Amino acid sequence: MTSLGLTGIPGMAIVQANSLMNYIIGMVIAFGAAFVVSYLLKYETDSE
């Protein structure tokens, strides 16, 4: 990172150019893990 700021997709604006691909790979892993955990722990209501 070249400065402090937002993380996530807007954070790509402050990542150094030579580490942008590592940042994108990390974001894909983080989004994927969050999706899988949310899917596995979904809340079931009575209407389902």
Can you offer a commentary on this structure?
- The chain is an all-alpha fold and 48 residues long.
- It has a domain at 9-40.
- It is 44% helix and 0% strand.
- The protein is built from 1 helix and no strands.
- The chain has one helix at residues 20-40.
- The mean pLDDT is 84.
Question: What topology does this entry show?
Answer:
Layout: H1 20-40
Key terms:
mainly alpha
Summarize the entry for a quick read.
With 48 residues, the protein is mostly helical. The protein has 1 helix and no strands.
Could you say which structural class the secondary elements and strand pairing correspond to?
A: mainly alpha
The end-to-end span amounts to 45 Å
Measured by DSSP, the beta-strand proportion falls in under 5%
Shape, per Cα inertia axes: elongated
Helix-residue proportion: 40-55%
Tell me how many strands there are: 0
Contiguous runs where pLDDT drops below 50 for at least 5 residues: none
Number of helices: 1
Biggest sheet character: none
Give the overall average pLDDT: 84
- Assembly state of the chains shown: single chain
Radius of gyration: 16 Å
Q: What sequence of helices (H) and strands (E) makes up the elements?
A: H
